[in-house]
Hints:
It is a single chain. The protein is mainly alpha-helical. The protein is 81% helix and 0% strand. The mean pLDDT is 87.
Amino acid sequence: xxxxxxxxxxxxxxxxxxxxxxxxxxxxxxxxxxxxxxxxxxxxxxxxxxxxxxxxxxxxxxxxxxxxxxxxxxxxxxxxxxxxxxxxxxxxxxxxxxxxxxxxxxxxxxxxxxxxxxxxxxxxxxxxxxxxxxxxxxxxxxxxxxxxxxxxxxxxxxxxxxxxxxxxxxxxxxxxxxxxxxxxxxxxxxxxxxxxxxxxxxxxxxxxxxxxxxxxxxxxxxxxxxxxxxxxxxxxxxx
Length: 239
């Protein structure tokens, strides 16, 4: 009898892991913006540094970058996609353009984004240290587990903690490269390095998060649990 049940148990476990992997993939794409999220946050900066390299005019470069970010937002609206990442890109570009034109220093175009990256890195590290990892807070609702991983799923707690450390360290390294260039380099150097450090660190952090979650136990679907409890309560009341 034991030999009959063992393959069935293995199949069930494999199915749960496959479902967990699919859910993790979808959650990562939704939470971090996917390909279009990278476009929204990277391409306008590329346009700024390219235009500035060619003409050395802050206003022209800033207007070109801001115009492109608005076009990308409109394109998302036409495709009926979420505007969350597009709006963050537009506001980031707008703040950078404002600071650059106000100060007359093209390097200040990148300062708001650099400060945001540094602040996010510190937040990730602190949240991991206090055992409330931000990646779990961000992905938990999308995975339908909310915060159940903190008390009911220690394997996922460890995975979210490792993922949060990965994001924090990667963003700290990125900041450690960019800020010396901001202080001691010129605007063109800073711009091209910042563009180069846009997508690769992001992909590395997403990949590590995917690896950690793929090896973790499946999420506990607390939404389904609540729905089942409500149905059971309604059934008892009807009876």
